[in-house]
Amino acid sequence: MIKLKIDNTDYEVQEGLTILDIARSAGIKIPTLCFNEKLPHFSSCMVCMVKDQKKGNFLPSCSALVQDGMDIDCSSDEVKSLRRKAIELLLSEHRAECEAPCKVVCPGGYNIPLMNRLLSAKDYNTAVQLSITQIQSSGFKCTDCPGYCENACRRKKVDTPVSIRNMQIFISQQIKMESSVASQYNIEKSAKRFASHIGKIEPDELQEWLKECKDVVKRVREISDFTSAAMESESCMHCDCRAADNCRLRDIADEFSMKDPRGKLVNSPIQKKININTGLIFENAKCIKCGLCVRLCEGSTDEPALCFINRGFVSIISEPLSEDFNDILNTKSKEVIDICPTGALSNLK
Predict the structure, then answer these.
(1) What total number of domains does the chain contain?
(2) Model's pTM, two decimal places?
(3) Max Cα–Cα distance, the chain, nearest Å
(4) Which of the listed residues 76, 92, 108 is the one where a domain comes to its end?
């Protein structure tokens, strides 16, 4: 057995455990991003740092094994300051956007991108459910609104903005007709969350957003039925982050009350790689290079998987240089999406 001290409390534990193992079993909260209990430990994000009081150095708690006589500090201001710096470094490379511009400017905060996805998938019943919840939460704003969402819509840089306002009005009119439908959504009003911003988008980057639209989209300005709503929704460029409500990086930034840094160390270009066989989307600008998706597929010989290419500061995660993106992860797409701590990996649906 090993004896050590964590946050001034003595512990006697088995050999071979990590500092993170002991801290979590003791109820001490340590943030992590690159850690997954089902995978071998490999420190990369450094947001789980703790201090060895005896030696005066800092250790990644997810991979540092406990040693006899350790005196570990997990909760001091010094440790929290170091974690904050690690998060700042991750955010400085995170060229992403938590919320779509249309949703940000909407007076009601309606989830416009989700509504567009439901309509384009012809999931009309769920679209009505979403509208019920949004109206119950914020009231119906579209009738008197001048259309802030359409003014912010990036589609207008290509041709004309998506007819968001008319789609929202049409869907709201269906609520009385579908009054028996109970909403499955539960929208809670909460404090303003951390938001990462893209800023100016270059012309070649704009074309990346168009990859999720059909090559030929029939535009419909006046929405009179579900068919016309579905047609117009297909012109949405989906410039939101699908992981907006399920992003561990965003959650940790919230915990530390952080804002998106103005200067970016590496301003990765916006690029969407889409696997036409599985619908897997990979956006490198959102990747924090934690390596979880790589480690998840290590040793697998059944199909090509994601890997690190280049070295050092310019290393990135990509498909192998000898493979096409359409040929990778044909059976493990869902697993890599689920394990990703940001929205770098997602699905077309």
Answers:
(1) 3
(2) 0.87
(3) 73
(4) 92
